[in-house]
Design brief:
The structure holds four protein chains of four kinds. By secondary structure, chain A is an all-alpha fold. Chain A has nine helices and no strands. Chain D is α/β, with parallel strands linked by helices. The chains are: A mainly alpha, B alpha/beta, C alpha/beta, D alpha/beta.
Chain lengths: 128, 663, 146, 325
């Protein structure tokens, strides 16, 4: 998939228009997982806008996003960065071999206190 | 029989290049009623006008058709020229053969043919033109200024200086508006009270100015030059002319727990109060919502202590009707409510304040006597965080406003600077999206805050504020450093967006003045007529038209005053004679026309008519006020009987044009 | 009208004085071409257009009638075009109901700044009416030119 | 029923509540009832008729009658009260001079339908229970009233009397009897089919002006079609254009004022379904600008004299199309 197709796909999945962003940074101000990601919510928006999508797809940060939607809630321009992040995760899943979670990972992360559903739903979410 | 003259203009080569002007004047010369037809290089030139004028005299013309540029260009020129030669100016019609013919067609045959048809249409119309005389209506030489803030005061002073009486209607007990609540003003840092209060006093003392304080506009009737306005003077339960403003009652009143709106509720006042020491008029007002005497019928302390005998618990609202020639709207602005911005903990912590509240906390006449103290524990704050654009530039309608509030960047820089100047031991952070400082000495001012006063300007936005153990945990982004900041602040100051006063919308309806979706009054032209409303006789002063700082407001106030003065200087106004006209014999009196008239120009009268067999019938028939009617023609189509027609654009005239074009 | 065996429709355009007439002037100032079939009649406001005028135009040989006014919300008289909008909607619907080609009538909102839109609208409308051919269903044979 | 109305009329005249009564009396035949003004109890006794043929809407006559001095009583059926109230709204009738006796109605009949049902030589028609009995020269003929109703009554919009001083019979309710079905049928046709349908109908128009003269909304002091200054004077339908023109403009002039009383079609000697033009406007208004019934109240602005900022653009006509599947 070419980069412009990729940008269009992200736009279609997320329904987000990154051009509405006025670069105020409130999303990154609100983000509780800010320090866990190498790219931050405001960067997500500008990277999608400038077409740096591959970089985003290969970033671990998209999986440390908590999907708490604080950025969506706080954004004064209704840009909705969390939806972009979700769209990038979906784009990864659509790509061959980019599953974030593989069956063989599971034994290692199994934890007695972890509800079984959490593993099952994470597996559903992060794998084709 | 009509005697029509046709004048075809070449407009140099503008018309002549694609229209055979010779042929046009030749063909149109043979149209019925045409007795003279010619063409000339520049009809609008003095020579051209002379040609028209001598033809009017020589051929005793009863109508003139000029085939030239758009009537929007030279209709007035040609009408004036004909008037000078003794022809009624409304017997002139223009055929637009430049903008709507020669300039859009390349083929000369096509252009010529179309020019002839357009000329024929104009001839057909002019056959039916009637001489019209512009009516006149007198101008009441008195102005009304609605709103007594700096905008209203300045406008009133300027109009009064020109020698015209002017009334100010202010809904609060005192004039002065928002500016009275400010501490210092940017970019010069002079004290707001020091520059405003002399103007307030001047307004009160000016013989030409009458102040209706604690009053509101109740109804507006009439039209430019002849407005009739009903003013509701609200009962203040104190005789304004008797009260000396000594303030004894405001000290003795036992009801002490009234939130003081002048200090934005940061402290309390009594039920009888004078908003602040320099109030104009300096008279007490009883707050009926809190006064025990008015609510329960017992107390009466103020009446007992008042040596002047000014208290009157039986006072009622008073309605005053006054006539005005011009109305200036100066209803100003308010900061928006911040309760939708939970992320900044505004409603959770008293130490999160709005900028206007901060202004009161810094003001020597404020609740803390000018000492910056935290509202929660009255300690001196060490770390302050200012957040800009709270509610401005906001996409969501229910939370904020889509526009830039314009003044926040500058007053925040002012706050930060004053804070650092008074308390050098403080750390001051300003979070900004953009710093917008266009204005004389504005950017220099902001740079001084950064460079000389060491204010930390951070490009980024506060994401959340959490009150915790007496501190305010501020989490924010620093976009240039690409990191998230966590600041333990003592105070957070929010630069709230500003919005038009809530009285503006109902007022606009009364005035039939137009407004934009944000409830700001619309100007007649955004560039060329910025202080006039599209509704004639209504002028705009200050922030009611859009966000503005003080210098801009004062400039606009002066401009609005000069426009109002220009109107009041006239003894009579000339009305557009192309107005609706009912044929009473055909009128059904059904009110259809009245229902669609945007100006309220149509009223009804019962008139006697001759019925069959020598009887008389009384019928309700429409009457048009030609001074109010603007000539849109909505009524002419609403009228089922065709009784309503429009002068200058009558049914028959338009149909004659249709026929000429289609034939 | 037939010119060289080709059908040339007669189009009457009613333009409000404040927006669309100025828009038409602007398309002239910018030398934007549109067919000479279009002849403009200036009216103060779109709300001045009586359905009678439209029928009169068809009777006398027009093949298409278009009304141009200020954009809703921008009316010089604040509300005129809102009335025009309802009137024309109902009138056009009625013409359609009678089986008269609805493509022969049109309303467009053209501001004083939209010279380009004015020319484009006229080009489009003339093409649409040319395709329909001469007005037969609402013609008055006594006024026929052919 | 007729007896009750007569008694009421006589009482109103006798106790001087009014000095004349507008009602119906027989014309040439017993079934062509015509509006009439009665001045004395004797006239009432002799001529007043109220029957299944009292279709005529009396409200329009009150424009003139209410201005003649004194007070006039009028019997109004539910649909007539809508016209009456619409005229009040337009300040055409002086309310204080009219005493309205509301009369409940379960539909008026069309003699043509009775004849078409095979009754020749009808001499009288009476109601018996739910049915009609037609007395003919050849004996009695029974039929259901439903089959004899005027078209407009078969799809009656309301049994509610929206204005009256006194009510004979029960107050009724508004109802939906599918009065737009015929309009919808036309809307479903292709433009060509519609064109030939209306050509077929309107070409029969003889410009007798009966529709105009009976219409309560067409009560102009001077009709534009009679006025040489209107630019639209037109006395006779000389060709197809004028046939169309008259009916389009007439429908447009009454649009948002027409109460759908159906008198136009009832009186048309050529049996042109003129109400279908008015109903089209009513249907469009309901769909585009919200339900509106002319004459239902005194306050709501007629939709053509009102607007909202979000009204549909005229292009909606192209989108809605004429050839709905």
């Amino acid at each position: 998939m070419s980069n412009s197709d990729l940008m269009e796909t992200i736009g279609r999945i997320s329904g987000v228009n990154p051009r509405k962003c006025m670069k105020c940074g409130k999303c990154s101000g609100a983000c509780p997982a800010y320090d866990e990601m190498e790219f931050h919510p405001h960067q997500f928006v500008s990277m999608v806008e400038s077409g740096r999508i591959d970089e985003l797809m290969n970033s671990r940060g998209i999986y440390t996003c908590l999907s708490c939607f604080a950025c969506v809630e706080r954004c004064p321009r209704s840009v909705e960065p969390a939806k972009l992040i979700e769209a990038v995760r979906c784009a990864c899943l659509r790509r061959q071999g980019m599953d974030h979670m593989k069956p063989e990972h599971i034994p290692a992360i199994l934890d007695e206190d972890l509800p079984q559903q959490a593993v099952t739903s994470a597996f559903r979410k992060y794998r084709k | 029989m009509q005697r029509i003259g046709v004048f075809v203009c070449w407009c140099g080569s503008n018309i002549a290049a694609t229209v055979d002007v010779e042929k046009v004047s030749e063909v149109l010369g043979h149209e019925p009623g045409v007795v003279f037809s010619t063409n000339y290089q520049y009809m609008c030139s003095q020579t051209g006008q002379d040609m028209i004028q001598s033809a009017i005299r020589d051929y005793k013309l009863t109508g003139v058709v000029i085939c030239s540029c758009s009537p929007r260009m030279h209709e007035t020129t040609f009408r004036r020229a004909c008037e000078k030669a003794g022809l009624n100016p409304y017997l002139v019609e223009i055929a637009n053969i430049r903008e709507q013919c020669s300039w859009i067609h390349k083929d000369k045959a096509v252009g010529t043919e179309k020019a002839i048809i357009l000329g024929r249409a104009a001839i057909a119309k002019v056959q039916l033109n009637r001489p019209l005389t512009a009516g006149e209506s007198p101008v009441t030489k008195r102005a009304l200024v609605i709103g007594g803030g700096i905008a209203g005061i300045q406008t009133a002073l300027d109009i009064a200086d020109a020698g015209f009486p002017v009334d100010i209607v202010e809904k609060k007990p005192t004039i002065g508006g928002k500016m009275t609540q400010l501490d210092k003003t940017f970019p010069t840092l002079d004290c707001a009270a020091c520059i405003l209060t002399p103007k307030m006093v001047e307004a009160a003392q000016n013989e030409n100015i009458h102040i209706y304080s604690y009053s509101e506009v109740e109804a507006v009737k009439g039209f430019v030059g002849n407005f009739r306005v009903t003013i509701r003077k609200k009962a203040r339960y104190v005789k304004e002319d008797v009260c000396t403003g000594c303030g004894l009652c405001t000290e003795k009143c036992p009801q002490k727990k009234v939130p003081n709106e002048f200090n934005l509720g940061l402290d309390t006042r009594r039920a009888i109060y004078i908003p602040f020491a320099q109030a104009v008029p300096k008279v007490a007002t009883i707050d009926a919502d809190y006064c025990r005497m008015l609510k329960e019928g017992k107390c009466g302390v103020c009446s007992k202590v008042c040596t002047a005998g000014a208290i009157d618990y039986k006072q009622k609202d008073e309605l005053i009707e006054e006539a005005y020639g011009a109305i200036v709207v100066a209803t100003g602005y308010n900061p928006i409510k911040l309760d939708k911005f939970d992320e900044f903990a505004y409603s959770q912590s008293p130490d999160v304040v709005s900028s206007l509240e901060f202004e009161r906390l810094m003001n020597a006449a404020g609740p803390t006597g000018g000492v910056l103290l935290r509202p929660s524990d009255h300690t001196h704050p060490k770390t302050l965080v200012f957040v800009q654009c709270v509610g401005s530039r906001c996409d969501s309608e229910e939370k904020g406003k889509p526009y830039c509030s314009k003044i926040c960047c500058m007053y925040t820089a002012k706050h930060a600077m004053l804070c650092r100047e008074k308390y050098p031991d403080t750390e001051v952070y300003v979070f900004y999206i953009d710093v917008r400082t266009p204005g004389k000495n504005f950017d220099e001012f902001y740079r001084r805050a950064v460079e000389e006063y060491g204010v930390h300007y951070i490009k980024g936005m506060v994401g959340k504020v959490v009150p915790e153990n007496g501190k305010l945990k501020v989490q924010a982004s620093d976009l240039l450093d690409n990191r998230q900041l966590h600041i333990d602040a003592d105070m957070v100051v929010l630069a709230a967006a500003i919005e038009p006063d809530e009285s503006a919308r109902p007022l606009a309806t009364m005035l039939t003045a137009s407004m934009d979706t944000n409830n700001f009054f619309t100007e007649a032209h955004p560039k060329l007529r910025p202080v006039e409303s599209p509704t004639a006789g209504i002028f705009l002063s200050g922030a009611c038209q859009g966000p503005k700082d003080i210098p801009e407001t004062v400039a606009q106030a002066g401009a609005a005053a000069s426009k109002a003065i220009g109107l009041l200087c006239k003894d009579h106004l000339t009305c557009n004679p192309c107005v609706a006209e009912p044929d009473e014999l055909m009128c059904n009196g059904c009110s259809s026309c009245e229902k669609v008239c945007p100006y309220g120009a149509i009223t009804y009268a019962d008139k006697e008519f001759r019925g069959p067999n020598r009887t008389t019938l009384i019928r309700r028939v429409a009457q048009v006020n030609p001074a109010v009617c603007q000539g849109c023609g909505a009524c002419t189509v609403a009228c089922p009987s065709g009784a309503m027609d429009l002068k200058g654009f009558s049914n028959k005239q338009i149909m004659a044009e249709v026929d000429a074009i289609c034939r | 009208m037939q010119v060289n065996g080709e059908f040339q429709p007669t189009i009457v355009a009613f333009c409000c004085n404040w927006c669309s007439y100025a828009g038409a002037d602007l398309s002239g100032t910018n030398r934007l071409q549109y067919p000479a079939n279009v002849k403009i009649i200036r009216i103060p406001c779109s709300c001045r257009l009586n359905p009678l005028f439209i029928l009169r135009a068809f009777q006398r040989g027009a093949d298409g009638v278009i009304l141009c006014g200020c954009h809703p919300g921008d009316c010089h008289y604040t509300t005129g075009n809102y009335y025009a909008r309802r009137r024309m909607t109902l009138l056009f619907s009625m013409l359609d109901y009678l089986g008269i080609e609805k493509e022969r009538t049109r309303v467009e909102w053209v501001s004083a700044a939209e010279g380009g839109k004015f020319a484009a609208t006229m080009n489009d409308f003339v093409a649409a009416v040319t395709k329909l051919g001469p007005n037969r269903r609402l013609e008055d044979l006594r006024c026929s030119k052919d | 029923m007729q007896q009750g109305l007569k008694e009421k009329a006589i009482q109103l005249l006798k106790d001087k509540t009014v000095d004349r009564v507008v009602g119906w009396k027989a014309g040439e035949f017993f079934y062509d009832l015509t509006p009439a003004v009665f001045h004395t109890p004797e006239e009432i006794e002799k001529d007043f008729v109220f029957s299944v043929f009292s279709g005529a809407n009396l409200s329009k006559y009150l424009i003139a009658e209410s201005r003649k001095g004194g007070k006039v009583a009028a019997f109004l059926k539910p649909c007539d009260t809508y016209s009456f109230q619409q005229l009040l709204k337009e300040h055409r009738i002086l309310r204080e001079n009219v005493y309205v006796v509301g009369v409940q109605c379960d539909g008026t009949c069309d003699i043509e339908k009775i004849k078409a049902a095979g009754c020749d030589g009808v001499t009288a028609v009476r109601e018996e229970g739910d049915g009609l009995v037609a007395e003919t020269l050849y004996g009695e003929h029974r039929m259901s009233k439903k089959d004899a109703l005027l078209d407009r009554c078969a799809v009656c919009k309301s049994h509610k009397l929206v204005v009256y001083d006194e009510l004979l019979g029960e107050q009724g309710e508004e109802q939906d009897a599918g009065r737009f079905a015929e309009v919808e049928k036309l809307e479903r046709m292709t433009p060509e089919e519609r064109y030939s349908f209306w050509r077929g109908e309107l070409s029969r128009c003889i410009r007798c002006n009966a529709c105009r003269n009976v219409c309560p909304a067409c009560s102009c002091e001077k009709c534009i079609f009679d006025n040489p200054d209107s630019g639209a004077r037109n006395k006779a339908a000389a060709d197809s254009f004028e046939e169309n023109m008259f009916h389009i403009i007439r429908a447009f002039h009454v649009a948002s004022r027409c109460t759908d009383c159906g008198e136009c079609s009832r009186v048309c000697p050529q049996h042109i379904p003129l109400h279908l033009l008015n109903r089209k406007f009513i249907k469009d208004i309901d769909e585009l600008y919200g339900e509106y019934q002319a004459g239902a109240d005194m306050d709501t602005k007629p939709p053509l004299m009102d607007f909202t900022k979000g009204d549909a653009d005229p292009s909606v006509v192209y989108e809605r199309g004429g050839d709905k599947a």
